[in-house]
């Protein structure tokens, strides 16, 4: 009798495709055609997955349990994202973020403009995310680049390389925390895992930018100073700029070195930032509490700086949290009703090595970025698809998290119809197909991620022999 029931509930590949194909169409039309956010299309995806599950023979209780399990796995990431909002609000109020940007802008000159652009966008993105970096300091660098007569696609490529490196290595970024939620592992461990590949990719990209920039090194340094000076003066007027303001960052780094878990480390960083904001920047306690929840509001009178430093707060993280919760609910239905397993089987049936798994994972991330098309789904869908397979092959899920970032996060702005590509094009005024050849980090890192996988596989094979 039990075997007959199992037979009736057997999930096949075509069941999964009945869920996935309509979801892809709804997602693509909603995001690309109507400019919608991914939350509502994801809800429709959950509805379709649930209907297919009932068709297979699952009950509502089982479908609900799948959603709850999926959401439960994301709760640590949700808490961390809330703390990130609090931390960013306190770090801007304390002067930590303004000081990092201030000293970064001081080093800009025509000779090192492109490498400096990447590095400063990296610093900013580590604190406020890739979209924040592109939409603020990225615009400033576009203007300076035009003054130096550097082609806009090259400057945009450097901006995006820096911004999306920050997105992949920072434990404060949405992408890194999403990857941690999907694979159910510590966000610091994932950021640490991808760091070596990211650093190698960044070094290669910076060297290329330095060589490319030699052709524009004759630019007028006075024009750069004139462009940067208003930004520096506005920050200096609003904040006490000093190396002392780096203390909150150092406190969190010490926590990481001492192997504190993510939540206590971020609480320490936030608390130290709040104390410094009150004592050193003379922020009132009531304002500091408001900044921690609603975000810091900058009023220097300089539109660029005000936009750059109006950020943070728990409230600002709610949109990202809503996407993560719905995406994890969808994945929970797919996993509980074995639609995910049926979808993955034909793809990985012949994959035996770690190199093969990393190759398939990166390609799937890119494919999802193209067809769904949103960075969150380019990370969450492949992660949910392959998590169990990594477990079966005894590959640490931390490694899977780093591969998701190396394949999904960095390639999203290179695709013209992806939400990241649309955003970057709208903000920077350069089409993705124009800047993509110069966004070196975005295609170097996926190649390095795949190469690393095959190198590890080769080493394992040699050691066995």
Describe this structure in words.
It contains 24 helices and no strands. The longest helix has 34 residues, at 60-93. Mean pLDDT is 91; it is low at 1-5. It has 465 residues and is mostly helical.
Task: Give the structure's gist in a few sentences.
The protein has 465 residues and is mostly helical. Helices cover 77% and strands 0% of the residues.
Structural features:
globular, disordered N terminus, 24 helices, single chain, mainly alpha, 465 residues, 77% helix
* Quantity of strands, as a count: 0
**Range of strand content:** under 5%
Look at the structure and give the mean pLDDT: 91
What are the secondary-structure elements, in order, as H or E?
Answer: HHHHHHHHHHHHHHHHHHHHHHHH
Shape: globular
Q: What is the end-to-end distance?
A: 48 Å
Share of helical residues: over 70%
Radius of gyration: 23 Å
Low-confidence stretches: 1-5
What's the main sheet like? none
Tally of helical runs: 24
Secondary-structure content class: mainly alpha
Write the layout of secondary structure elements.
Blueprint: H1 2-8, H2 13-34, H3 39-56, H4 60-93, H5 96-106, H6 113-128, H7 130-134, H8 137-147, H9 152-169, H10 174-183, H11 187-213, H12 221-238, H13 247-257, H14 262-279, H15 285-294, H16 303-308, H17 318-336, H18 339-348, H19 354-371, H20 375-392, H21 397-409, H22 419-428, H23 432-435, H24 440-464
Helix pairs in contact: 2-3, 2-18, 3-17, 4-10, 4-14, 4-15, 4-17, 5-6, 5-12, 6-8, 6-9, 6-11, 8-9, 8-12, 9-11, 10-20, 10-21, 11-21, 11-24, 13-14, 17-20, 18-20, 19-20, 19-21, 19-24, 20-21
């Amino acid at each position: 009798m039990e075997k007959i029931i199992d037979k009736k509930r057997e999930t096949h590949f075509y069941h999964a495709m009945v869920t996935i194909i309509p979801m892809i169409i709804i997602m693509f039309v909603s995001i690309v055609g109507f400019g919608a956010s991914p939350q509502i299309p994801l809800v429709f995806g959950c509805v379709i997955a649930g209907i297919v599950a009932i068709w297979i023979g699952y009950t509502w209780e089982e479908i609900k349990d799948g959603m709850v399990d999926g959401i439960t796995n994301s709760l640590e990431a949700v808490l961390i994202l809330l703390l990130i909002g609090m931390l960013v609000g306190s770090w801007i109020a304390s002067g930590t973020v303004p000081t990092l940007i201030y000293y970064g802008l001081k080093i800009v000159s025509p000779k090192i403009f492109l490498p400096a652009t990447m590095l400063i966008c990296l610093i900013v993105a580590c604190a406020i995310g890739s979209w924040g970096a592109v939409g603020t300091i990225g615009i400033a660098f576009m203007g300076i680049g035009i003054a130096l007569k550097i082609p806009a696609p090259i400057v945009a490529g450097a901006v995006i390389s820096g911004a999306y490196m920050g997105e992949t290595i920072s434990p404060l970024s949405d992408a890194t925390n999403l990857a941690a939620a999907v694979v159910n592992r510590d966000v610091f461990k994932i950021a640490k895992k991808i760091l070596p590949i990211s650093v190698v990719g960044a070094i290669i990209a910076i060297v290329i930018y330095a060589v490319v920039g030699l052709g524009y090194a004759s630019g007028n340094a006075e024009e750069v100073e004139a462009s940067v000076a208003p930004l520096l003066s506005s920050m200096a007027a609003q904040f006490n700029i000093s190396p002392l303001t780096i203390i909150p960052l150092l406190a969190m780094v010490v926590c990481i070195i001492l192997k504190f878990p993510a939540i206590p480390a971020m609480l320490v960083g936030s608390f130290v930032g709040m104390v410094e904001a009150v004592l050193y920047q003379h922020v009132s306690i009531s304002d500091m509490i408001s900044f921690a929840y609603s975000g810091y509001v900058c009023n220097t009178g300089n539109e660029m700086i005000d936009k750059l430093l109006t950020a943070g707060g728990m409230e600002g993280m709610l949109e990202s949290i809503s996407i993560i919760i719905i995406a994890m609910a969808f994945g929970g239905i797919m996993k509980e009703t074995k639609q995910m397993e049926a979808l993955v089987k034909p793809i990985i049936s012949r994959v035996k090595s770690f190199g093969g798994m990393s190759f398939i994972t990166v390609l799937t991330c890119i494919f999802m970025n193209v067809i769904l098309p949103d960075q969150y789904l380019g990370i969450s869908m492949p992660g949910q698809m392959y998590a169990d397979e990594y477990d079966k092959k005894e590959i640490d899920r931390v490694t899977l998290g780093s591969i998701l970032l190396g394949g999904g996060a960095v390639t999203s702005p290179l695709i013209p119809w992806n939400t990241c590509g649309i955003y970057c094009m709208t903000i920077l005024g350069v089409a993705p197909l124009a800047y993509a050849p110069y966004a070196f980090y975005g295609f170097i890192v996926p190649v390095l991620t795949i190469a690393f996988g095959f190198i590890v596989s080769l080493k394992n094979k040699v050691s066995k022999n």
